[in-house]
Amino acid sequence: MEEQENQTVEARPDAKCKIAFVGSECYPFVKTGGLGDVMYALPRALISQNCDVRVFLPKYRCIPEKYREKMVYRGSFMMDLCQDGRSFFVGIMELVIDGVIYDFIENEEFFSWGNPYTDLYADIPKYSYFSKASLAAMNYLEWTPDVVHCHDWQAALVPIYLKTQFAPTPVGRAKSILTIHNLRFQGICGIPHMKYWTNIPGFVFDYPGMKQNADDANMMKGGLAFADCITTVSKTYAGEIQTGFYGERLDDHLRYHSGKLVGIVNGIDVEQWNSETDSLLPANYTAADAIEKKKANKLALQEKLGLEQDENKMVIGLISRLTNQKGLDLVNAIFGNIVDANTQIVVLGTGDHNYENSFRYYEGVHKGSVCAYISYNEALAHQIYAGSDALLVPSLFEPCGLTQLIAMRYGTIPIVRETGGLKDTVQPYNESTNEGNGFTFFDYDAGALFDAVCRTKDVYFKERDRWDEMVVRDMGVDVSWDKSAREYCDLYMKLKG
Ligand code: ADP
Ligand code: GLC
User: Fold this and answer.
1) Where are the domains of the chain?
2) Which of 162, 164, 278, 494 has the most crowded Cβ, counting Cβ within 10 A?
3) Distance CA 128, CA 209 (A)
4) Do domains 18-267+482-496 and 290-475 have the same CATH topology?
5) What is the dihedral of CA 132, 136, 141, 145, to 10 degrees?
6) Is 290-475 a CATH 3.40.50.2000 domain?
7) How much is the pLDDT for 114?
8) Which ligand is nearest to the CA of 405?
């Protein structure tokens, strides 16, 4: 990726709208999952739609030095935060990359840890501070957005602050959108702790605002109630979260607010994920030479990971946070049945120790056929997307999922459970019409996953022409942000009024 850093931002007097993004992670500064990808790619796509975008992020210690050293100081001030009037330093450090302005909120007390997330007891004060400081920074910079687009629970206090403490200030004119990337994480803690750190007025804690129950407050719940609009990252997930199974105890709250809830599917940045130009790949390719060149990528991957080098073996990849959201119980249950003399599995991920250890165990048992790479590794992820034949995404729930989109773009066939965005983005292979982009199953059941893997293998090993057609077809699927960025733009314009 060729980035142009800190070039002058052209004034955009003709911009359609001014949008502030507020979220807890953003590639390439800090990323633990798909939220980081979206915070990077969507603002870039919005700039092409002629929007003015600034992204507000915490200046974590873990942000690489090569970015930190280029940041420009834009000012600082003290800000009241807590119920007892305790105030905190807010610094604003700015970086401009390819026309997107990134404003990093600096505070040593909150952001001096290595990683963005620690535990809820520490994270609640940290993100209360960050949400309020982002709005205060907008006022300080005298930049008033039309819409503040908030992401996940870490920014869920923003819609509340906008309608309370910040209502009489310039930024109080802005409308708010809260996007749910993952409803499982909500930012819940005892009411006194939340009241102390946010100093939000008492009425906000009443049902149906931020109060979760007699003892606890819930940031996500409060944000959903106060936001002008709620979005989530696929149409199917927008429906699912209104049901008991997927609703994470907020299904009734979301049904109540369903009039302002829409699903807009994620895309990926097609420059960042481009097999033709990806400098991390041993062999670049397009749809025209993918069948041959993917073999070269496969051989290089096998060599790198200590697998038996053989272009005729099927390589199945899995790139994931290792949590129970990702359907790993199903994978564990049938692991030994998928690996065979002609099939290898590559796992790249970190997370729960029980999953990390079980994948390590399978690597030990199937030496040369299985690699469990227990780590976070951006470069290896690119090489697995390119060098695998298929990618497993059997999630229990998946708000959108980006790995299946990246896989398709790299001509790697996804095997997915029909849930959330996986359902909306992967059209099941239909053997009678020879259409579709991947292999799917519905029941959250190891047998159903096994059946899908067997169907995948059947086409790979017995109908290679059809397989190769699907590879080329998948590379032609539009997984870019174009259409969805237009939908967000329409939404901003509607809110702006
Ligand atoms: P989630 O946000 O739930 O983790 P997504 O599918 O939306 O799932 O996004 C995951 C993103 O993180 C993708 O860009 C994927 O390539 C990346 N990723 C996940 N695990 C790893 C890892 N261990 N190393 C490198 N990239 C990873
Ligand atoms: C979340 C979800 C994932 C989604 C990502 C970006 O982490 O788990 O499905 O793709 O956010 O929206």
Assistant:
1) 18-267+482-496, 290-475
2) 162
3) 16
4) yes
5) 70
6) yes
7) 73
8) 1
State the DSSP code for 429.
P
What is the average pLDDT across 131-151?
Answer: 98
Any residues with CB less than 8 A from the CB of 474 and at least 6 apart, and which? 407, 408, 409, 411, 412, 413, 437, 438
C-alpha dist (Å) from residue 199 to 69, 129, 242? 35, 11, 30
For the cut 70, the answer to whether the pLDDT of residue 456 exceeds it is yes
Per the confidence metrics, is the pTM higher than 0.85? yes
Res 208: pLDDT: 83
Judged against a pLDDT cut of 90, whether residue 9 lies above it is answered with no
Q: Could you tell me the fold of the domain covering 18-267+482-496?
A: Rossmann fold (3.40.50)
Token pair of 20 as six digits: 């502030």
31, 35, 37: residue to mutate for ligand 1 pocket, most atoms within 8 A of CB: 37
Q: Whose CA is nearest to atom 26 of ligand 1?
A: 378
Q: Which ligand is nearest to the CA of 317?
A: 1
CA of 322 to the centre of ligand 1 (A): 10
Q: What is the mean pLDDT of residues 272-281?
A: 98
Per-residue buried b or exposed e for 358-375, using 16+ beta carbons within 10 Å of the residue's own CB: bbeebbeebeebbbbbbe
Does the structure show a pLDDT above 60 at 8? no
DSSP per residue, 50-61: T-EEEEEEE--T
Question: Is residue 413 predicted with pLDDT exceeding 70?
Answer: yes
